[in-house]
């Protein structure tokens, strides 16, 4: 990977907040002409520093009113079991994030669902389908205090 300089970092900071900014405006804000800025953005994409662009959706207006975190513990652990869990959870549309973690539990899962009935179904599917899943602990979010996809660069 190419070493990131101050201009690359400024481009990344702007694009995180304004992914749809025109190259001409981005160029003006970083103090370069459009062509080198466009080339830098393409390089950052090719090097996978920029992995995509997205629209941030209002989940409440989409009917996905409940955010829940689930800690999941497995009875056995192996590379094959971790791969199987990864494959199964990738197929669950309600799961927004899943992390293999160190500690008392093996996975931390973030899911968004419309209501508690759907949560119950989701939890049942997770526990029944995942290999070696033996215990879960859930945390239903009462208030979302901060959520961000912005990282300091």
Automatic annotation (TrEMBL):
Annotated CDD domains: HTH_ARSR
One GO CC term, this protein: cytosol
Signal peptide: none
BP-aspect Gene Ontology terms: regulation of DNA-templated transcription; response to amino acid
InterPro entries tied to this protein: ArsR-like_HTH, AsnC-type_HTH_dom, Dimeric_a/b-barrel, Tscrpt_reg_AsnC-like, Tscrpt_reg_AsnC/Lrp_C, WH-like_DNA-bd_sf, WH_DNA-bd_sf
Pfam families associated with the record: AsnC_trans_reg, HTH_24
GO MF: sequence-specific DNA binding
Annotated HTH asnC-type domain residues: 4-65
Protein name: Lrp/AsnC family transcriptional regulator, leucine-responsive regulatory protein
